Amino acid sequence: MKLELNSRQIQILKSVCDTLIPSISQKDKHETFWELKASDLEIHEKLREVLALQSQKDQEEFKMLLKTFELPLIGLLLSGKWNQFDKLNFEAREKWLQNLSSSTIPAFRKGFQALKKLTCFLFYTDTSVKDPNPNWKHIGYPGPLSSPPDKPKSFYPLVFNDEANLSCDVVIVGSGAGGGVVAKELTEAGKDVIVIDKGSYFNEADFNHKETEMISQLYEKSGALTNKQGSMSIFAGSCLGGGTVVNWAGTIRTPDYILDEWAKEHQASCFLSNEFKKSLDQAEKNIFTNTDQVAVNPQNSKLKNGSEKLGHLYKPIPQNVVIDKNEDQRLVGYSCFGDQHGFKQSTLNTHLEDARKNGCRFLVNTEIENVIIKNGKATGVYGWQTHSDGQKTRVSVFAKKVVIAAGAIHTPAILMRSGLQHKHIGKNLHLHPVMGVCGIYEEEINGWWGGMMTITNDQFTNLDGNYGFKIETPPAHTGLIGSSLPWQSATQHKEMVLQAKHMANFIILARDKFGGKITLDKENNPVIDYKLSNYDLNHLLIGIKEGVKIHLAAGAQKAHFLHNQLPAIETSDLNKLDEIVDSLSWKENQYNLFSAHQMGSCRIGGNKKLHPLSPEGETYEVKDLFVMDASAFPKCSGVNPMLTIEALAHYLSQGLK
User: Fold this and answer.
1) How far apart are CA 625 and CA 479, in angstroms?
2) How much is the pLDDT for 325?
C-alpha cells in the first residue's frame, strides 16, 4: 500500500529525494557511492509506503508540503528563482532545501525534517531493490551477520474470520514490559487470561536484522512516529512483546530518590514499601539481570575512557542479555531489530512464554477500540482484528477484570475513547528527550556491533535536585546514522556518512521536568503533543557540551552535535564551546530530538483530582479497570524504564490474584 499521489506529486517527490541524495561526480575509491542517487533505489516509492501508514492528518499535511514545491513564488523566496522545484537546476534545488531547513516558518522546517529523515533512512537501509544495499560496502557496514534460524513458533494466536465473543477472568491489552508481566503473574495464580496486542507476532525465524524491514514490522508507525510538532522522532515497539523485543537491553533499577519523590509528592507510599522492593528484586531475577555477560564495545569504551579522564561518575549498565562466552558478541548489536539468537530476555522469551505454558490465550493484530463499561464497572473490551488482506473482524472479550497496558501513548487513548473523563488522562506525558553527540576517531568504532548500551555517565543526573541527564550510547546502524546526521548539502551529508565506521555516538537523555499530553484526532487516534521546555532544553545543551568534552578526552579528532548548522568541535575549540552552543538558535526542527521512553500519561497517586489511578492501579472512575504500564508512573523514571515497568506490573498484579 502506498500514499495515493498524482503523477505531478510523484515527480516532485522524486526530485526532492534526488536533491537530498543526488548523483555526484567524484573520482575516488567511493566513486560508485557518489554516483548513486535516491531514485536508483526507488526511495520516493518506498517513502510513499511509509506515509501510507501515517494518520490522515499527517498525509494531508504532506500533500500540502508537496504543493508548495509547485509554487513559483515559494521558489523565488527559497531559491531566488521563479519556477517550480523540479524545473530548476540542481544548485537552485539544493538552495531551496537549505533555506527550507532554516526557515523562520515552523511548518517549513517540520516539512524539511520529515523529508530528510525518511529519505536518508531509507536510502542507507533499503534492500528491496538491491540486496545488499549498495551503500554498505562503501560505509564499511556488513549488514546482518547471520541468517534467521529455522525455529518453529511457540505461540498460536487466535484468528477469527467472523465476529467473535470470548470470555475470561482477566483481559490484558498490551504485551510489553507491563502486560507480559501481568500475564505471567495471573496465569501462575490460576487465572484464565487473554492477552491482546495490536502488533503482530514474530519469533527468531522472522528477525532478519535488516534495519528497514525490522523497524517497519516491529516499531510503531514503521519507525516514523513523531510528536505533533514533528520535532521529535519517537521510537516505540509494536509487536507481541512490545518494546522489550526492540529495546537496547538496559536494565536499570529505579533510583531510590525517584521512588521517594513518587511516594511523597503523589501520596503513593507503596513505592517505599518492602513489597515494591521485592517486586524490583523479582523483576531483575525474571529477566536474568547481570553485568558480566556483555562485553564493552569500542563505542561504550570511549564513553567510559573519556568520563574517567574527566573525573566523571560512570557505571556499567546492567543487561537482560544472556550470552555464552563462545558466541559472537557483535551479534548483540542487532537485537534492537529482534533477537535471532534469544540472548535478550524480552517478555516474549520470558513472561509471555511462561504465561503461554500456563494456558494464556493470545490475540495479535487486534486493536482495542473501547473498554466495555456497565454500571460503573469494566466488563471487557472490544476492537478489530486486521487480517493480511486488510479485512477486519470485530472481537469482544468479556472479563471480570480489565488491565490496560498498551503504553503511555495508547493507554490514555483507549481510556478517553471509552468515555473516561478524568482531566489528567493523557496529561503529564514524559518522554526523556534525547540529543545526540558524535565523535570522529582515527580508529574504527563500528558502533553497530556489540553491547548496545553498557556504560552510563551519571555525573549530571542530579544537576538540579532530581533533574538532570544521563549520557549513554545507542546501537548506531546506517539508517539511524543517515537520518540523524544534519543535512547542509548533498555533498556534506554523503561525506559524513562515509565516516560512520569511525563514529562513536553518545546520547544525552534528560529527565524532563515538564511534560506534554496525548489527545485524540478526528479519527480517535492518539496525537503526541509535546514541546520541549526551556528548562529541559537547557539541561540538554549542558549535556551536549559535556558529551563533546568526553569525546575529545577519549581521543576524538573532532566532535559534532546534531544541530542543522553542524559545528565541528576540536580540542582547540574547547575554550569557546559555550559560545558556540549558546550562539545557535534552538527552535523546533533546527536540531534533532529523539525519545524511546514514554511515561506518565495516566498516573498513579492518592489524590483523586490529580491522578486518574489509585495506588492499586485501578481507575478512580471505573471499577475493575486497571492500568499497569509506564503510563502509570507518577513522573518519569529518570532511567531506562523497562525494569521499573516490570516491577510496577509485578507489584500491582498481586492485587488481582
Assistant:
1) 40
2) 85
> Tens digits of per-residue pLDDT, 503-542?
999 999 999 999 999 999 999 999 999 999 999 999 999 9
Residue indicated by cell numbers 552535535: 561
Query: Any residues with CB less than 8 A from the CB of 415 and at least 6 apart, and which?
Result: 371, 404, 425, 602, 612, 619, 627
Beta-sheet strands, E only, within 229-300? 232-234
Provide the CA 498 distance to its chain's centre, in angstroms.
25
* Distance, CA of 73 to CA of 25 (rounded, Å): 31
Three-state DSSP at 395 gives: strand
Q: Is 377 exposed, middle or buried (0-12, 13-18, 19+ CB in 10 A)?
A: middle
145-191 per-position pLDDT tens digit: 999 999 999 999 999 999 999 999 999 999 999 999 999 999 999 99
Mean pLDDT throughout 79-102? 97
**Which grid cell is 299?**
563505542
C-alpha to C-alpha distance for 500 and 482, rounded to whole angstroms: 9
| 257-308 pLDDT per residue, tens | 999 999 999 999 999 999 999 999 999 999 999 999 999 999 999 999 999 9
The letter for the amino acid at 202 is: F
In the block, residue with C-alpha cell 567511493: 30
Chain segment 635-644, per-residue pLDDT in tens? 999 999 999 9
End-to-end CA distance of the chain: 44
Identify whether the C-beta of residue 553 lies closer than 8 Å to the C-beta of residue 310: yes
Helix 90-101 vs helix 7-20: angle between axes, to the nearest 10 degrees?
80
Burial class (CB in 10 A: 0-12, 13-18, 19+), 316: middle
